[in-house]
Design a protein that fits this description.
This protein is an alpha+beta fold. The chain has one domain. Helices cover 41% and strands 19% of the residues. It has a four-stranded antiparallel β-sheet. Strand 1 and strand 2 form a beta hairpin. The N and C termini lie far apart (102 Å).
Length: 172
């Protein structure tokens, strides 16, 4: 038997159809893969901003003399900066809310349109809440800018609240 007699003409046409379908679907699969990569980068960056807010809030909760501070303390800014630098980001704006000293106070550092959290503060005890905003400019691949989906122009904002635990030491 010759190889030609074993292969049927319908089988050859079906193999060609499968190749054409693969070529037509390949761009769709590539776009889907790139969208998942871009979304993964954005979600990873959001986790870093969230943890940066948490680290800064923890540092603020241990900051002495917060009640008399007129600006965001340098150690809080540095804590947020240090954490975000690990992933190559930097804070665009830091907002520190607290009720140390018996009055509600809002301190701000940096530039941006971020606002204090709309979640009501704790009703009991002394607290600090730090909101950190960062831009995505350098980290998103911008694969879909031509489609009007430019995630790089967006910012990430997250807040963390801690109990204020620092007590000024007497006699300093």
């Amino acid at each position: 038997m010759s190889p030609r007699s074993i292969l049927r003409p319908g089988r050859i046409l079906r193999a060609g159809t499968i190749s054409i379908e693969l070529l037509l679907n390949l761009p769709i699969w590539l776009i889907t893969l790139l969208a998942m990569v871009e979304l993964g980068v954005v979600l990873g960056s959001a986790q870093h901003v969230s943890f940066g807010a948490r680290v800064a809030a923890e540092e603020a909760s241990r900051t002495e003399f917060l009640a008399v501070a007129e600006t965001v303390p340098a150690n809080v800014i540095e804590a947020a900066r240090r954490h975000l630098a690990v992933c190559g980001m930097s804070p665009a704006k830091i907002i520190l809310e607290h009720n140390a000293g018996g009055r509600h106070s809002v301190l701000s550092w940096g530039e941006g349109s971020a606002e204090p959290s709309r979640i009501p503060p704790p009703s009991q005890g002394t607290y600090v809440r730090v909101t950190v905003a960062a831009r995505l400019e350098r980290f998103v691949p911008r694969l879909f800018r031509s489609l009007g989906l430019d995630l790089a122009s967006q910012g990430l904002v997250d807040s963390a609240t801690f109990r204020y635990a620092a007590q000024p030491m007497e006699g300093r």
